[in-house]
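Technical note accompanying the year-one report. For the benefit of new consortium partners, we illustrate the data format agreed upon in the data management plan: each record pairs a sequence with a structure-token string. No post-processing was applied to the example shown here.
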Amino acid sequence: MGVALAVGFSCWMAAPEFVFAQNPKSQNAEPQPKRAPAAKAPVARRNPDPKAEAPPAAKAEAPPTARATPLDQATMMGPGSMMTLNGATFLVGVTSNPASLKKIESGLPPGVAVSGDAVVVERSGAVLEGYDLRGYTVSADADNVTIRNNLFNAAGDHTVYQGSNASGIVVEFNTFDGEKVNHPNNGDMVLSENEATVRNNEFLNLPADAVNVAGGLVERNYFSGASYQKDAHADAISVHRTVVPVIIRDNYIDYIDRPDAPQGTNAAIKIVSHFGAIEDVTVDSNVLLGGGYTIYVSPAEDPNTGEAHPINKVTISNNDIGFGKYGAVAGGNHGTNYTFLNNHNFANDAHLLKSGGSAAAGSAPEQPLLTIR
């Protein structure tokens, strides 16, 4: 994966070997399950488990003398933000000026209704596009619903929700701004219990989690800032069970701890089988930053029934990973047929330079391979 940043990067160096697991004694809790959808049977919120075993410790290497700097979120706050990653340029977030977005009172498309602060889509193939939906939740109760070019904040338990009786939702070109609010109930910006596509969105300053899926595609999204909900265990992308394979690719996730949040984030990627078996998840060609460990992959027991759910065929490949407090990937059991291949240290790996370039402490790349504006 050839990656560099044109904005906010000041110094580069050749890397020592990437340290994938550093385990201080204080990190002894495995990731715990998220809250289940409100309409389902209640599920306990996650709490740290003081009896959980920590992964084995690995010898830490000295930090680099020069480090790449993550992207400044301020460059991504306006409409029409663009990103070039892995040779492709694409928009992320709302494409319209927020002032031009429609209000609910102006009317909704056929098959879409509003009751209080809840928008419900009941017609297959309906498109909800170009609205200021701050203060509202959206529930897709029909197949193949598209949610496009809307502005959201942290409303409800799940801001955009697709239940198990619907499939094929597409969530694209939206901006989800959590506004750094300590929302006590918001668990996810997007939660899908069936196949979904989540692409080209922005997720900024969230209370807790961003995206939770059980199948489909999560690609070309920008995530920056989370854990503003007190006692949150914030994850950017979560998979707790699968109904079809999951592909997570070409996302830029900055879940580095924020000094104004009440606690740090949990992970950029969390693949833990709390609510069912997990089969065939690919995490490829992403920038993954922050968390306790940046990535968790583990089988788990159902918090309601105690049933053990297996995990099989998880592939973590070609990612740039960095700034996890304890390391890149939590140790322990990663399930069967687990692959970790060709991943790199975001902070100090020479591969971030263009082909033929050279890295030296304090130097900048001649030509960035990823640009953001």
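Partners are asked to follow this layout when depositing records. The domain at 73-372 is CATH 2.160.20 (Pectate Lyase C-like).
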